[in-house]
């Protein structure tokens, strides 16, 4: 599992592994962070998860990702689960785990990609937003959608309330979707490699 920050989704997933929908289906090989100071790392350790980190600060993306791939391969993960990992993965990374990288995005990825999805929903006074769990390809939140779940935002008067409602759904549906994925209950997607441009 990969994170960069507080790790509330990581906590929900670890709980689901310990005594929820992921019990006897999954184990956490390692919680990795590109930020050695991430609060989520400490929380993961307190939950008895193996942890690892490598600072991405000032690093070239492709070189950094090549090192992360090597670290992760040492744990032989079946899936790479992004839980608030605040970096766009390089093609090197995506190639190494193609079709096995999962992300959760707090909006409908057809409507909003990238950061600040709850702010976007709040600023636009959306009556509803959608939590999306998707496979990761080379694009920014463009991979095949595994599941989408609505969040009722009617009457949410602050951004904090929008986030609170959204995260409650995230924490439930991420584990549920991963369980379905592991059990082979979701459609399979062929993820073709995106041709590398000839010019850099
Ligand atoms: C979540 O909203 C997740 O959907 C997004 O980043 C946030 C991470 O939060 N990708 P947390 O670290 O899991 O609390």
TrEMBL record:
Keyword Transferase listed: yes
An annotated GO cellular component: cytoplasm
Keywords: Purine biosynthesis, Transferase
EC code: 2.1.2.2
Protein name: Phosphoribosylglycinamide formyltransferase
Single GO molecular function: phosphoribosylglycinamide formyltransferase activity
Domain Formyl transferase N-terminal: residue ranges: 2-177
Pathway(s): Purine metabolism; IMP biosynthesis via de novo pathway; N(2)-formyl-N(1)-(5-phospho-D-ribosyl)glycinamide from N(1)-(5-phospho-D-ribosyl)glycinamide (10-formyl THF route): step 1/1
Pfam families given in the database record: Formyl_trans_N
Any one GO BP annotation for this protein: 'de novo' IMP biosynthetic process
């Amino acid at each position: 599992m990969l994170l960069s920050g507080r790790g509330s989704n990581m906590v929900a997933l670890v709980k689901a592994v310990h005594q929820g929908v992921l019990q006897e289906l999954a184990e956490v090989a390692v919680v990795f962070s590109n930020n050695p100071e991430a609060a989520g790392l400490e929380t993961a350790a307190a939950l008895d998860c193996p942890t690892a980190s490598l600072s991405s600060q000032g690093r070239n993306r492709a070189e950094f990702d090549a090192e992360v791939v090597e670290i992760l391969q040492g744990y032989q993960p079946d899936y790479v689960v992004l839980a608030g990992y605040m970096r766009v993965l390089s093609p090197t990374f995506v190639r190494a785990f193609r079709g096995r990288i999962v992300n959760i995005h707090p909006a409908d990825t057809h409507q909003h990609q990238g950061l600040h999805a709850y702010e976007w929903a709040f600023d636009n006074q959306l009556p509803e937003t959608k939590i999306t769990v998707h496979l990761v390809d080379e694009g920014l939140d463009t991979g095949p959608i595994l599941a989408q779940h609505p969040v009722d935002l009617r009457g949410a008067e602050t951004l904090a309330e929008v986030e609170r409602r959204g995260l409650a759904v995230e924490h439930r549906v991420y584990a549920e979707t991963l369980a379905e994925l592991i059990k082979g209950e979701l459609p399979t997607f062929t993820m073709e490699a995106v041709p590398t441009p000839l010019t850099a």
